[in-house]
Amino acid sequence: xxxxxxxxxxKCFEAATVKCKELSLFxxxxxxxxxxVIQAILLFRQTFERNSFxxxxxxxxxxxxxxxxxxxxxSYWYKxxxxxxxxIEEDDQIWECYYDQEAQALMMKENMxxxxxxxxxxxxxxxxxxxxxxxxxxxxxxxxxxxxxTQIGSKGEHVVSSLYEIGDQSGFKVYKNMKNSNESSERxxxxxxxxxxxxxxxxxxxxxx
Length: 209
What we know:
With 209 residues, the protein is an alpha+beta fold. It has four helices and seven strands, in the order ββααββββαβα. The strands form two sheets. A five-stranded antiparallel sheet has the order 2-1-3-4-5, covered by helices on one side. Strands 6-7 form a two-stranded antiparallel ribbon. A hairpin with a 4-residue loop joins β4 and β5. The chain starts with a strand and ends with a helix.
């Protein structure tokens, strides 16, 4: 479980610490930093899915969870120094990155050891943003990502593939022609407007539960 999130000179925060529980609810006016706290988590997760925190320790600022631009874009406007750091504390793991002036990038702390059992790296990680996609014929694939087949995607774009993988466990009837089997850069999911209508109803049912 994530216990604490710390940010320094990151977006709207000069310095902030957020304590988390098993269920954490962020509320407030626009521009107060709710999304910023969540983005700190997503930066670590999308970096892990891309390269497993391997030899390349650069934090990926622009990925399929969030696209934050450049170092300048994520820096606190009124910062008094060039330090930027993000820290995520779990029960038995601490994720930390800092701004490396020479590399001009956010870098993971060296010699970090991680397991696949934590909130940040486990298969149970799921994120759904406020902007969700409606039914469509094609979706981009995630080649090169450490993507879990049962994740529904940040915009609900992988609901169909997830239902296919889950199969009988989902309780929904999943048609064979919904399977995402084309390995090209775009994958054809749906066959006909009738299927599109059915999938839209499935997505709405999932979001209502």
